[in-house]
Amino acid sequence: MNPVNSRRFGMLLKSTSAIVVIAALSTSLAQRATAEAEAGKWISISDTVIVQLTKENKKIGYPGLTGGVGVDRVTGDVYMVVCDQGLWKSSDQGQTFARVDDGNVTGRCETGFEFDFDPAGKRLACFTVYGNSALSSDAGKSWRRSTAGHNDFVSVDWSSDSLVTLKHESGGVLIKSDDGGKTWATLGKGFFNVGLLDAKTLVATKEGKASSIIRSTDGGQTWSEVSNLKPVGRAPRITSGAVYWVGDQGLLVSRDKGASWAQLGKPVKAMLGPYFGKDEKQIVVVGKEGVMETTDSGETWKKAAPLPPGVEGDGMSQFGWDPTHNVFYAGKMGKSTFKYQR
Q1: What gap in Å lies between CA 173 and CA 152, rounded to an integer?
Q2: Are 196 and 163 in contact (CB under 8 A)?
Q3: Quick check: bond before 63 cis, omega within 30?
Q4: How far apart are the first and last CA of the chain?
Q5: 287 has which bridge partners?
Q6: Residue 57 — left, alpha, or beta (φ > 0 → left; ψ -120 to 50 → alpha)?
Q7: 229 phi and psi angles, rounded to 5 deg
């Protein structure tokens, strides 16, 4: 290349690089402006998906719109169920969605506990009513479909292939799988809230919405009462070796695999959660009064956000929290799915 052409080529490279930098900066500024405009407001993030499906003449099932939302707190990915139109994933805080279930998740979520995410990230289970349920070990790239569908919620032991669920409208029939949902055993009837702590250890309540905690250490064959505290969340959640459960007076905690329980910190009214932030001290729960947050293991609680329209904060509402990007997500069967950027 002669000197003149060499100089021209160098100038072209510099010009192209400048254009790329300017374009990236413009995109970054636009994204920041959007985030700032949306901050402190509940914004619907499901509208574009609903419009797309409507244009494609895809029938959205009863009762319309969406029915389920959950968040992988490690990656920040948000998963949204569209009634009878599968599971959709967004990796950009709800700006865009793509369907990821490959036909393995259908129906709708009816409670706030039909998602269960591995605390370490990427693995998730989505169990629905009036449709198929499935588990993914790679953030939705592939799925294992459960042979049991039509479920109220799910609790997974991520250290094994064991999981439990309640059959919907069955009088509280509890079923358990030890092979990732291929086969199931019935453990009895009359259960209401249930959690799987490991392949053999379960905790549960029976006889209504607020009853004492019972525990099994033999895979659900026998049970004994371990606490007169009353959980109201459909399933507990585990982090850093401790088990947390939303109770009728506040957040409950067990540090010995459910053998004993205590209330964590001060009372707080909630039905959904807990959802964990940067560590086990930062926790969010959700109830009829809104989104409540603690950063000191429950010693103090403050209102982090109100509820979006049409979402009452009851057991049939759905919620998720992305602590990395500081975004809340909420929805309810038959409603839009919303996000709240703090």
Answers
A1: 10
A2: yes
A3: yes
A4: 55
A5: 290
A6: left
A7: -70, 155
Using the predicted structure, report yes or no on whether residue 12 has a pLDDT greater than 60: no
What are the tokens at 313? 């904060």
Q: How far apart are CA 59 and CA 7, in angstroms?
A: 60
Sign of the Cα pseudo-torsion (112, 114, 116, 122, in order): negative
At 72, is the secondary structure helix, strand, or coil?
coil
In 3D space, the residue among 275, 191, 173, 269 whose CA is nearest the CA of residue 234 turns out to be 191
What average pLDDT is seen over the chain? 92
- Contact predicate 308/39, CB 8 Å: no
Neighbours of 228 (CB within 10 A): 9
Does the pLDDT of residue 312 top 90, yes or no? yes
> What's the rounded Cα separation, in Å, for the pair 313 and 331?
9
**Average of per-residue pLDDT across 28-39:** 61
HEC string of 22-61 equals: HHHHHHHHHHHHHHHHHECCEEECCHHHHHHHHHCCCCCC
Q: At residue 185, what is the residue type? A: A
Percent over 70 (pLDDT), the chain? 88
DSSP characters over 126-148: E--BSS--EEESSTTSS-EE-S-
200 burial class (0-12, 13-18, 19+ CB within 10 angstroms)?
A: middle
Q: What is the dihedral of CA 132, 136, 142, 146, to 10 degrees?
A: -30
pLDDT tens for 198-225 read 999 999 999 765 589 999 999 999 999 9
Closest listed residue to residue 327, CA positions, set 93, 6, 5, 3:
93
Return the DSSP state at 291: E
Whole-number Å distance between alpha carbons of 120 and 30 = 32
The answer on pLDDT for 84 being more than 70 is: yes
Residue with tokens 């007076």: 249
State the pTM of this model: 0.88
